[in-house]
Write a structure and sequence with these properties.
Elements: H1 2-27, E1 30-36, H2 45-61, E2 66-72, H3 78-82, H4 87-98, E3 102-106, H5 107-112, H6 117-120, E4 129-130, H7 133-142, E5 146-148
Parallel strand pairs: 1-2, 1-5, 2-3, 3-4
Length: 150
């Protein structure tokens, strides 16, 4: 009985591996930009939903098959601003960054709202700041990135 249980567990694990591999083959390589420019709402729910969509996208395609960027401008910068105090956001951002997701922040928004990236934003560095969020969206689309607005 024990051997049958072990064999069944191994068969399920193998089937899950093949299913993931099949999904990765089905979707192929992708370049995607997620556009975030609205406020997260109560409890940052909107931001958390967007980050969950991104995690689901990675799970379906496979991190190795995906170049993914998140461009934030306007109220969307609240995602990395609120992550300073919202541990759910902070954990989600850190997890996605560990899977090579790039988080890009609009300099126009930072300047216009007097936001100091070193003090006010979670895990944002000079290389994460782009001159214009909307121009970056266009640039990435010209480079073959698919546009998604969660």
């Amino acid at each position: 009985m024990r051997i049958i249980g072990v064999l069944l567990a191994a068969a399920f694990a193998l089937a899950a591996t093949f299913q993931t591999a099949a999904a990765n083959d089905y979707y192929g390589k992708q370049k995607v930009v997620y556009h975030v420019n609205t406020a997260g709402g109560d409890g940052d729910r909107g931001y958390l939903v967007a980050l969950t969509n991104i995690r689901n996208h990675i799970a379906a395609v496979g991190a190795e098959n995906l170049e993914l960027k998140v461009v934030m401008h306007g109220d969307g910068v609240g995602l990395v601003k609120n992550a300073n105090t919202n541990m759910k956001l902070q954990t989600a951002v850190a997890d996605l960054k560990s899977q090579n997701v790039g988080f890009l922040v609009c300099k126009n928004t930072l300047t216009g709202r007097n936001i100091n990236p070193d003090k006010d934003l979670f895990d944002v560095y000079a290389e994460d700041i782009v001159p214009s969020g909307v121009a970056e969206l266009s640039r990435l689309q010209q480079m073959g990135y698919t546009y998604i607005r969660p």
